[in-house]
């Protein structure tokens, strides 16, 4: 995250875990004449182990357990990735603009929004004139990852991807259970597991670039391995 590794930063990391674990969401799902209310958190738990070496504290590891809701969203490709360069953005407004662009523009050719509406989404309480100047400065600096922004004379802010759509696609991740099962299938068939994995990922990425991402990457990968002929 482009932060330092001193004791104060460890404390801030702990505080971030506490905030995330303490953050809860409420959803209402209505079916017919019944309505179900659910509450959930982003994180289930978090932990870290700090060691003291030569009189200084050093973080040895940290671990978080995601909530079931977050894991389902990740496995269902319902979340978007963020660039590592996001953590190098120093101005809070720059970060917020990137988050808004990532959510609403995604890999589309462009997305536009009125300046006043954008200010509302950012939560900025600056006068509109000052907000406009801030946007122009950010556009001039041009540090926003993934996207270029444009401010028109009609006070429309336009987001456009810098790179082809394929570069903005989320990474295809294989869950551990799928990798374990695929290794077993590869062993039974006398095939190279890593070759199967590489071939399938190449195919899946090419399909995702066409707008056909796998709905369940793990199940699709295991099925692909099962269809390969045996070399034994």
* Topology as a string of helices (H) and strands (E): HEEEEHHEHHEEHHH
Number of domains: 3
Q: How much is the average pLDDT?
A: 83
Percent range of helical residues = 40-55%
Categorize the overall geometry. globular
Number of strands: 7
Q: Please give the order of strands in the largest beta sheet.
A: 5-7-6
Taking pLDDT < 50 over at least 5 consecutive residues as the criterion, the unreliable ranges are: none
Biggest sheet layout? 3 strands, antiparallel
Describe the secondary structure blueprint for this structure.
Elements: H1 7-22, E1 24-31, E2 34-41, E3 43-53, E4 56-66, H2 68-75, H3 92-104, E5 111-114, H4 115-122, H5 128-141, E6 147-151, E7 156-161, H6 176-189, H7 193-209, H8 217-227
Antiparallel strand pairs: 1-2, 3-4, 5-7, 6-7
Short description:
The chain is of the alpha+beta class. Helix content is 44%, strand content 23%.
Keywords:
232 residues, 3 domains, two-stranded antiparallel sheet, globular
Describe the protein's architecture and organization.
This protein has 232 residues and is α+β, with helices and mostly antiparallel strands. It has three domains: 7-75, no CATH class; 84-167; 171-227, no CATH class. It is built from eight helices and seven strands. It has helices spanning 7-22, 68-75, 92-104, 115-122, 128-141, 176-189, 193-209, 217-227, and strands at 24-31, 34-41, 43-53, 56-66, 111-114, 147-151, 156-161. The strands form three sheets. A three-stranded antiparallel sheet has the order 5-7-6. Strands 1-2 form a two-stranded antiparallel ribbon. The chain has a two-stranded antiparallel sheet with strand order 3-4. The longest helix is centred in the C-terminal third of the chain and has 17 residues, at 193-209. The chain is globular, with a radius of gyration of 23 Å. It starts with 6 loop residues before the first helix and ends in a 5-residue tail after the last helix.
